[in-house]
Every structure is written in C-alpha cells, then in structure tokens.
Amino acid sequence: MKKLFVALLVSAFSAGLLRAGELDSKLGKMAQKFADTYSSRPGAVVPAPTAIFPLQTDENLAKRRVNFAATEVFTSQMLKSGKFKIVERTDLEKVLQEQRLSLSGAIETDKAADVGKLVGAKLLAMGSINRLGGSYQISIRLVNAETSEVITSEYAEVPVKTFEEETKLYLPYVPEKEAVGIFAMYLLNPVNLTLTSLLSTTPVKYTYANPNTNTNQAVSYYTGWNNYAPSLDGGSIFGFGVKYSPWSWLVIDLGMTPALSQTQDIYLAQVNITDSGSGRPDTPEGQQSNLTYTQSSFQLGLSGIYNVSKKVRLLFGAGATQYTITNKITGNLAIRQPFYYSGGDPYYLELNRTVNQDGKTVTPTVSQDSRLPQDTNMTFTFEDNMLVPYGKIGLEWKPQERLGVSLLCTMPFGSLDQTFTMVTVADFVDRFNNTTVLGNKTSKLYEIKDNELPEISLAVSLYF
Fold it and tell me: Rounded to an integer, what distance in angstroms lies between the CA atom of residue 103 and that of residue 434?
C-alpha cells in the first residue's frame, strides 16, 4: 500500500512537470518538424539563415504581448534544433522600419519575402496565435524567402492557463482591473500662504507717578511683530504614493508629502519710552526671534478614467488631504527694559508675553541663561491637523503599458487659515525691586492666510 502511494505521488508530480512544459514541448516538436522537413530537401543549407516574424494576433492579445511570448518560445526551440541560424531581431526591425512595415502587424508573404532577402534570410517563419475558448491556437508556416513557397506548416493548441504560467516572464502586461501602481510626484507650490503682520500702529501706554519728580510719566510698547518676509512660499516638493484600480474606469490613490519646513526671522517691537523728566527721546527697539512653519500631508483620492486615445486618458475626481501643520515661535518674549529718572537710578518695564492660536493655548518650553527676564528664551509650539477636500482633473500619457506620466490640477475646497494672538502682561519695577502690575493687553500677533490657489503636480507612475 505504501509503495502504491509513493508511485501515485511520483506519477502526479511527473505529470505536473510535463504539463508545466507543455508549450515548450509542442513548439519544440513544431520546430523539429520544420528542421526535418527542410533538411531533407535537396540542396538544403544547414544551418539556414531564418527570419522569424512575430506571430499575428488581435489587438487585445497584442496588448498583453501574447504573440511576443509565443514567438520568443518558438525562436528558442528553433535554435535548439541546430538547423536554423536566426536573424537578429534588431536587424529585422531596422529593415521593417525602412520599408514602413510594422513588426507586429499583418505582413503579406510576398512582402515578408522581400524583407527576408534584405536581411539575408533563406527561410521565413510566419504565423498567428488566437484564443478560442480556453485555449490558444498557434499556427506557423515555414516559407522559402526566394520563391515564397510554403515548405511546411504546423498547428498547436495550448490551454490558456498553461500558456500564461509558462510565459509569465514574457507577459508584463497590466490588467485593466485590479491593477496596482506606485508613483512619484513633483508638486508646484504645495503651500501658498501669506504671513500678515498685525503690528499695532498705536502703542499701549501706561502712566506712572515719578516719585522723584512728582510728575506723571508714560511708558508704552507695541504688541506685534514686524520686519519679516511677507509670505511663506511653498516652492516645490516631491511626494510619493500607491494606486489601485478595482475596475478599468476607476483608480484609488494614496499619496503623501514629507515635511516642508520654513523659518522666518521676526522682530518684536518692544518698548517705546517717553520720559519727560530725563529728556530721553522715544526709543522703539527690536529683538530678533523666529517663526518656523512646517507642513506635511497625506491624501486619499478617487479618479474616474476616460480613454481619450490608446495612450492618453483623462483623469477626474475628488478626495481629501490631511495636513499636519506646526507653527513654532522661538524667542525672548519676557523682556526687561531699563530706563532712568532724573536721579539716575534705574527702573524697569517688564513685559511677559504668551501666545495662543485660535483660542488654543500651549505651555512654552523655557530656557534661561540667568535670572534676568531678558535672558529668558521661550518656544511656543502649535500643531494642527486639518482635513481639506479637493477636486482634480488632468491627463495621463502612457508611452508604455507599465509607465504613465500625468499632469494634474488640484483645487482645494477649504483653507489653511490660522490666527495667532499674543497676551502681554506689563509690570513696573522700581529701583527697590518693587513690582506694580500696570495691566495686560490681548492683541492679534500674526495671521496665515491660504491663497487657495490650485496645486499643479507632475507624477510618474509604474503599474503592475
């Protein structure tokens, strides 16, 4: 019983191997029949120079390169017979181009014979492959290039599944549905933002009593920023993603762009002191800080497909982009500005500032080199996730079955506007280090306005 089981297992395995080589076997027998028939003819020259033309087929099978695969397998078997010397494919292509004939199109026997003579071939192998039901039917004839005489012809039939399993290395076609692709994209102006200064033109003024002179004096300050570049220019950035086509008329794409970061130097308009007692003039001063804007995105889209031509298709659809945006404000926001009375003793105005975004507050990271407020460096970090829907339209050019180059225009249906507010607490510190709270002021700091311009992207896709 055990021996019988082993025998059956070996038989099944051997049958599988034979089936796996069915195409090679049948085309090998065809090539050997050609070799035997030709070599038995009087005056036969061995090996005979032979031009093998691609098998003719219909448009769908040609698109899937079925004829190319069958021709390659047959060519290999013809070489194995040892009776034929195959003309180089590049030489055959060159002559066909010169004769304005298509290598994959139908060629009459007489014209093929003329081409064969030009490449030095004595024999021509021509034929066709077609699908009928669950099988491929292959018909090939051997032709005398000098006389156009058909020396012999043969026919073979191979199951579709067997054919495609054995020729999968020759069939790099992309299915019309359930196709997968990867793409790299180049985005022009992914960030179109205007940074608006909200620097107050009217200073916040506090009046205090000068104990030395018994007069009222004013201390004032401004509440915004100034002297920075007017925009955050997105420039260009690269992204990447994957595509999936569940049907021939629809594609789903997932894409992302890495973080794009820009830093702008900004200056705080600090203190403007009016001290009539000392005759000191107004002194607006500035201190450098910086604003870092960082943006990354992840997008999901659906696109319909309309074939304009064999190589060009129209893409149109919609989707949504998830933006991750970080604003980081770093600088000395705690300021101690000295000024003097007529007696020469120093007094200070201390300004302690905090920042919030659209009503949201964060706890800053603080680093201080000394106990003095003016040496305090603070970092406020705001992170937002914004979902913006979009519509898109564009064209894709497919010079090859696996390759696509597309130009798309994406229009957002939302904005990335942000408003930042600064709260300033002012303290008056006298020469004895006594502190008096003068008051606080809430004011807009800066705004980021999305220009909501279309985004242009160029993508290169590879399909499987």
Answer: 96
Structure confidence by residue, pLDDT tens digits, 141-189: 999 988 889 999 999 999 998 998 888 777 765 666 667 889 998 887 6
Rounded to 5 degrees, φ, ψ at 95 are: -70, -40
- Rounded CA gap, 76 and 89, in Å? 13
Question: 423 in the Ramachandran plot: left (φ > 0), alpha (ψ -120 to 50) or beta?
Answer: beta
Check if the beta carbon of residue 143 is closer than 8 Å to that of residue 149: yes
Strands (E), 278-417: 286-307, 312-331, 334-340, 346-357, 360-361, 365-368, 376-397, 403-412
Q: What is the mean pLDDT of the chain?
A: 77
Look up residue 52 and give its two tokens.
Answer: 């093998």
Mind listing the domains of the chain with CATH numbers?
18-170 (3.40.50.10610), 179-463 (2.40.160.20)
The H-or-E segment that residue 117 falls in is helix 109-118
CA–CA gap between residue 177 and residue 329 (Å, rounded): 49
SS3 38: helix
Closest CA to 332 of 362, 361, 367: 367
Nearest to 280 by CA among 205, 219, 225: 219
Which secondary structure element, helix H or strand E, spans residue 19, and what is its range? helix 2-20
Strands 346-357 and 334-340: antiparallel
Tokens of 325: 């945006």
User: Which pLDDT tens digit goes with each residue over 225-253?
Assistant: 444 444 555 556 889 999 999 988 999 99
- The SS3 of residue 136 is strand
Classify the C-alpha dihedral 208-213-214-217 as positive or negative: negative
- Helix, strand, or coil (residue 334): strand
pLDDT in tens, 64-73: 789 989 999 9
> Tell me, what's the pLDDT at 180?
87
- Shortest CA distance to 330 belongs to which of 257, 269, 424, 263? 263
Residue with tokens 């000024």: 339
Rounded to whole angstroms, the Cα distance separating 255 from 383 reads 21
DSSP per position, 222-281: --SEESS-SEEE--EEEEEEEEEEEETTEEEEEEEEEEEEEEEEEEEE-EEEEBTTTTBP
Residue 259's nearest CA partner among 207, 306, 190 is 190
